[in-house]
Amino acid sequence: MKTYYAVSPKEYARMDTAELRQNFLIEDLFVSGQVNLAYAHYDRIIVGGTQPTESALHLDAADELAAGCFLERRELGVINIAGAGAIAVDGITYPMTKYDCLYIGRGAGAISFSSASAQTPAAFYLVSAPAHQCYPTVHIPKEKAQQVSLGSSETCNERVIYKYILPGVAKSCQLCMGLTILAPGSIWNTMPCHTHERRMEAYFYFDIQPGQSVFHLMGPASETRHIVMKDRQAVLSPPWSIHSGAGTQNYSFIWGMLGENQDFDDMQGVTL
User: Fold this and answer.
1) CA 152/CA 34 separation, integer angstroms
2) Which residues pair with 85 in a beta bridge?
């Protein structure tokens, strides 16, 4: 489990491209037959990816957690971004098709991931937050998420937001999680951009076609930079950083937020 330490706006302003990528970009999340995790000191978020093939993969507590099991003091959100699979939680199996989400509450012990076919494996993206309360495990298919259509083709940001883990859909301690799918011809994931003073966010970009990229914008509005993202890569967005990006083609992304407020609209708009 790789560790990312918190960066202030002052340190950020002095970073070159290589340092930005080293401190905010999370690469190589999906390797067949592995569970890969990244621990960040922004609200102590953990993001990860796993792609089981022939056999199930188990989510164990890394040494850094000093816990008997991964969710001893944490909660977890998982979204499948590829082929059909399943997640087993303490002996209960939840089938997972593409875009299905599973919320797993604090205290769950044995957790494993499997694919229905090794030729078209599932790929599970994980976001975990510290939790002080236990809520029930909930399976949320895409059609049961809260759906919001935003943007337009004229402004190149026509998109549908699917809200999976937040009040009104699946109760959690502090984790909020969802999926945004851009329509063909749209490239901006959010405009106008914004910040979240009371929570951080991690973006995971996927369904990016070969040869295409997403330019993730970050930093204070007065000093923005970009990080070039490829398919199945994640990026950390601190509370002081704007949240926005544009692709060379349409794409999808998963957002996961941690902090002291679960109100989706708790944001500060920024005009560039």
Assistant:
1) 39
2) 96, 115
Does the global pTM surpass 0.85? yes
Q: Which domain holds residue 255?
A: 2-269
Task: Check pLDDT > 90 for residue 85.
Answer: yes
Q: In DSSP terms, which residues pair with 37 in a beta bridge? A: 48
203 CB contacts (<8 Å, ≥6 apart)?
Answer: 189, 216, 234, 235, 237, 243, 245, 253, 254, 255
What is residue 63's three-state secondary structure?
helix
The count of structural domains within the chain is 1
**Residue 260: per-residue pLDDT:** 76
Other Cβ atoms closer than 10 A to 55? 11
Domain containing 43 — which CATH number?
A: 2.60.120.10
Give CA–CA dist 206/81, Å, rounded. Answer: 8
Q: What is the Cα–Cα distance from 23 to 74, expressed in whole angstroms?
A: 24
Cα(37)–Cα(170) distance, integer angstroms = 24
| pLDDT score for 270 | 76
Q: Rounded to 10 degrees, what is the CA torsion of 164, 170, 173, 174?
A: 20
pLDDT band at 262 (very low <50, low <70, confident <90, very high): low
User: Which DSSP state fits 143?
Assistant: G
Task: Kindly report the backbone phi and psi dihedral angles of residue 163, in degrees, each rounded to the nearest multiple of 5, phi listed first.
Answer: -95, 115
Q: How far is CA 187 from the centre of its chain?
A: 19
11 is written with which tokens?
Answer: 């340190």
Q: Collapse the DSSP code of 30 into the 3-class scheme (helix H, G, I; strand E, B; otherwise coil) and give the result.
A: coil
